[in-house]
Design goal:
Blueprint: H1 4-18, E1 28-30, E2 39-41, H2 44-51, H3 55-66, E3 72-78, E4 82-87, H4 89-101, E5 115-119, H5 134-149, E6 153-157, H6 165-177, H7 200-216, H8 218-233, H9 236-259, H10 270-273, H11 277-287, E7 291-293, E8 296-299, E9 313-316, H12 324-339, E10 343-349, H13 353-365, E11 374-380, E12 383-384, H14 401-418, H15 426-444, E13 452-453, H16 456-459, H17 467-484, H18 498-508, H19 510-520, H20 523-543, H21 552-576
Parallel strand pairs: 5-6, 5-10, 10-11, 12-13
Antiparallel strand pairs: 1-2, 2-4, 3-4, 7-8, 8-9
The chain binds arginine (ARG).
């Protein structure tokens, strides 16, 4: 479906042309003076310079040719040469009727849509999923849904941190605690037990203990390093333990992501990239792009056009160990072989931006991905506490995601019960949905790169720019529709009031908001749009007697308008990754 600005611009451009001017001057924008008009065209000003005429003369000339255009109810030339436009009710309602009946509200899919991999989540196995991974999950899930909406085939890959020192730390610590386990017996030839010798709670306790010990106890630190090395070399008992750690952790991760409404198509991790490393190194050697630098093998990524110095990407240390970057490069190669992506989007803390710049450049040099594919790091900022420092628990530690979700849920449940929003069985559902909306909208309303302050009071408020406010708007419409009856097939009618027209105009802006969100990987654009839309919807609701309207024809128009508003809001919050309850 053509966007409304293009339709209007085409008409104004034709009028410019008929008046003897270049039609390119006919571009129309949304008015920045809504008190004066709905749309404006400023083309007469630059045209005046070229055609040596007064701008107002040109504007008058063009306005005269638009006077009979059925799309406009008002076309005015204003000093010094503006064209102020208002849409005719018939044109606007016909346009929105198309929006109402078209699939996806007529938003055109990306003609260049293809295969997209989104690397998000990025939790480290055996370490509890904490706040630091929260933003990646929330933003990544939304970007994934937006990419999909525009027609891409998207694979969300959780890219587990499952290959680092943390595994060696856990193995070494377990060995000290339970030295008699068969996994440590090198002469053991039987079958390893199917059951893990620990639970997730054990693991959560073992990892921090081991990590702390390795900092004060050199001997232990060396043992952890050795265990990591032996695991990576494939020592059978350690491999078996590693599998247990993976199974127990992944089950816990899935449970937590599930609560967050986040899911992944692919559960690969750093370990899955390891088999690609030796052939990748060979390829790099063959291409002659690996250089020696202080004993290490590196790829130089500096380019002549750089204004800053970019350090080389270290591929292998002098002791033969590979690094985080090596794994990321091998992962790009694996993704190319598995999915041939047209884009890989990384939703990772912005403090890793240098790492990704180096990795992307090295990947191109090594031709690990097709040259036309896009590699993009969507770096996000930190979630801070009210003190402006990275968010911590009251005790000062890093908070676990599960604890955070629990706290938000308790807070929201108290509000739900206090205000008697719902009763009985509905309390749990309504509470969970409001809590998710508060948490996710509170995050997504900020541009990803921005740091933001986690403020539960503000996020969970039912008024203002919050997730619960959006839900409230939807639920209110749902309840009117339920009381009205069958609304699904009512066509969009001409606006009866100024509030109705404002709401309709806001609805026509959906494609622009979504396209911007898509192009910039910026869910905050969707938030800004629905906040605006919800504002117009609530104004309309306050100024209009909907259910008590006696003129049935008028009433049908009201109902079809709020029904479309509801569907648009629901689609948008689905793109953000949350949903509205039935009641609240
Ligand atoms: N596990 C990493 C961390 O916790 C994040 C992984 C991000 N993705 C990637 N391909 N490097 O910092």
């Amino acid at each position: 479906m053509e966007k409304i600005l293009n339709l209007i611009s085409a008409r104004v451009a034709a009028a410019f042309e008929q008046a003897g001017f270049d039609p390119a001057y006919g571009r129309v924008t949304v008015s920045n003076r809504p008190d004066l008009c709905e749309y404006q065209c400023n083309g007469a000003m630059p045209a005046a310079k070229v055609y040596h005429k007064a701008p107002i003369q040109i504007a008058n000339d063009v306005a005269a040719r638009l006077a009979d255009d059925a799309a406009f109810s008002e076309v005015q030339a204003a000093m010094p040469g503006f064209l102020n436009l208002r849409l005719s009710p018939a044109f606007l309602s016909a346009y929105l009727e198309q929006t109402r009946t078209a699939p996806r509200f007529g938003v055109a899919p990306d003609p260049r849509a293809g295969a997209v991999v989104i690397d998000y989540g990025g939790p480290n196995v055996a370490k509890p999923l904490h706040i630091g991974h929260l933003r990646s999950a929330i933003i990544g899930e939304s970007i994934k849904r937006i990419q999909r909406f525009f027609g891409n085939t998207v694979t969300g890959d959780v890219h587990l941190g499952d290959w680092g020192l943390q595994m060696g730390l856990i193995i070494a610590e377990l060995r000290e605690r339970q030295p008699d386990l068969c996994y440590f017996d090198e002469s053991f030839t039987g079958e390893y037990p199917a059951e893990a010798p620990f639970t997730i709670s054990d693991l959560e306790q073992i990892y921090p203990a081991a990590s702390a010990k390795s900092k004060s106890d050199e001997d232990f630190a060396r043992k952890a390093h050795d265990a990591t090395f032996e695991l990576q070399q494939g020592r059978p008992g350690y491999r078996a333990l590693w599998k247990h750690i993976m199974a127990v952790s992944v089950a816990d991760l899935k449970k937590n992501y599930d609560k967050l409404g986040v899911s992944f198509e692919s559960w690969l991790g750093e370990s899955d990239a390891q088999p690609y490393i030796p052939p990748m190194l060979e390829r790099m050697e063959r291409m002659g792009i690996l250089e020696q630098s202080e004993g290490a093998r590196v790829i130089r990524v500096q380019e002549d056009t750089d204004t800053k110095e970019l350090p080389p990407c270290i591929i292998m240390k002098s002791d033969g160990a590979t690094l985080y970057a090596t794994t990321d490069l091998a992962t790009i190669w694996q993704r190319e072989q598995s999915w041939q992506p047209d884009k890989i989007l990384y939703v990772v803390d912005k403090r890793q931006s240098l790492h990704f710049e180096q990795v992307f450049r090295a990947a191109r040099k090594a031709e690990l991905i097709k040259p036309e594919a896009e590699l993009r790091h969507i770096g996000f900022g930190t979630m801070n506490g009210k003190d402006g420092k990275p968010f911590k628990t009251r005790a000062g530690g890093v908070m676990r995601l599960e604890t955070l979700i629990g706290e938000i849920t308790d807070f929201v449940r108290a509000k739900v019960e206090e205000n008697n929003l719902v009763t009985g069985d509905d309390v749990a559902e309504t509470t969970a949905k409001i809590a998710m909306a508060a948490l996710k909208y509170g995050d997504l309303m900020n541009a990803p790169t921005k740091d933001y302050v986690f403020d539960l009071d503000r996020f969970a408020a039912f008024e203002g720019n919050t997730g619960p406010y959006i839900l409230y708007t939807i639920v209110r419409i749902k309840s009117i529709l339920a009381r009205y009856g069958a609304w699904e097939d009512l066509p969009i009618a001409e606006p009866e009031t100024a509030e109705a027209k404002d709401l309709m105009l806001a609805l026509t802006r959906l494609p622009d908001a979504l396209e911007l969100a898509y192009r910039d990987c910026a869910p905050n654009t969707v938030c800004a749009y629905i906040y605006e839309l919800a504002g117009y919807a609530n104004k309309f609701y306050h100024e209009t007697r909907i259910l008590t309207e006696e003129d049935r024809q008028k009433q049908k128009g009201y109902i079809s308008l709020i029904a479309l508003t509801k569907r648009v809001l629901e689609t948008c919050i689905d793109l953000l990754g949350f949903e509205a309850p039935e009641k609240m």
